[in-house]
Known about the structure:
Its cofactor is Zn(2+). The protein contains 15 helices and 18 strands. The protein has 483 residues and is α/β, with parallel strands linked by helices. A hairpin with a 2-residue loop joins strand 2 and strand 3. The protein is globular. The N and C termini lie far apart (88 Å). Bound molecules: N-(aminocarbonyl)-beta-alanine and zinc ion (3 copies). One zinc ion binds next to loops.
Amino acid sequence: MTTIIKNGTVVTADLTYKADVRVENGVITEIGQALRGGTELDATGCYVMPGGIDPHTHLEMPFMGTYSADDFESGTRAALSGGTTMVVDFILPGQGQDLMDAAKVWSNKSTRATCDYSYHMAVTWWGEKVWQGIEDSAKAGITSFKHFMAYKGALMVNDDELFNSFRRVGDVGGLAMVHAENGDVVAELTAKLLKEGNTGPEAHAYSRPPQVEGEATNRAIMIADMAGVPLYVVHVSCEDAHEAIRRARQQGKRVWGEPLIQHLTLDESEYFHPDWDHAARRVMSPPFRNKQHQDSLWAGLMSGSLSVVATDHCSFTTEQKRFGRGDFSKIPNGTGGLEDRMPMLWTHGVNTGRLTPNEFVAVTSTNIAKILNCYPKKGAVLVGADADLVVWDPEKTKTITAASQQSKIDYNVFEGHTVKGLPRFTLTRGHVAIHDGEVRTQEGHGKFVPREPRPAVNRALTQWKDLTAPRPVERTGIPATGV
Ligand code: URP
Ligand code: ZN
Ligand code: ZN
Ligand code: ZN
């Protein structure tokens, strides 16, 4: 099977040039001028870019008494429709469950994926089995480990568990990740708000002010530094968290921050909407913030202090959101975005001049491929790389509606937004899954992408730790006692 993408402009994280791209058996085999042979895809007027990688999804996830509505089939179909060709989903072991047993559950679900996927392992409890499971997981190609500092009484881990787990993750050459919110304070504020009669969805935002995120982000950074492990902070929503990340990076710490497309483009006013359903559909953690926080996130992407744009795609139907009528703390937390991340970021980032097309590729694909150690198999337009590509038409427009989306849910948080910049074609390992608006995804086409540990970064941290470790001072003599 040979496909030639013709007459396009190749845009990568660092280069822009006119070239045709030959794809054979799922990989890029040639990049050059006037290539011939095979099925041709016309990319005239388009950019040929690495397909997007969304490193933060929750497909068919058991959470808050229900399951997120999109599964690996509908979720990855939505991804491909919007130009994303790889997702990284979170395995959530239950309390006391072996990590690799949980991994089997996720492998069963992901057999339906239409694009490639990888996993992060969540550390949801601590014990001997988890200590061992971290090594088993890394050997199985799951080398990033997420810790929830929120969701007290469910997924949350405490600081001693965090420190032990971070050290273990560092030992196996893994990447530590955190959902950074102070779960103790959130629990206190939630109880207080409910007691005072604040039961509506807006109280979800009141219960999670930026301070709870800033504090937890800073704490995670310091604990990671003491443990000697690189750290990735998911869904950074506010200046308070961004400030901690910016400071850490300036100090030479290996810390990356991930804002979501939702936080970049939607704000807290959504929670004050008079329609309960409208507000509840937007309940997620951390909540949407005000414009000053949004400006901070954009500035972080522009300056490089924030590295990756994700979605945290965790969709619930209106019916599921209504579990929280009369008590906001029971509204399942999560929003969708897989189909809309790339078009929304292009529209609000590239079309406004905040991001260059190359920076767009960096924050939607290449940076995370490097952080997660699957570059240049993914996140690249290079000979030998997987042909996970998007042929991006910067002139194509649409208005986002739930009625025309791939996701299973009955609404879209971006409903009514007009986007300019959409895929003409999306290729997943050479298969043209999106063909000029036509969805040709294949259930089961997606393959697991195992990832090696990142020895270079971890070695650098360990080496520095060794060189600067506490040592006894060599003295010439010790004064005798009583002199
Ligand atoms: O509200 C959210 N973000 N739901 C998904 C789970 C998580 O915290 O990432
Ligand atoms: Zn989270
Ligand atoms: Zn999440
Ligand atoms: Zn918009």
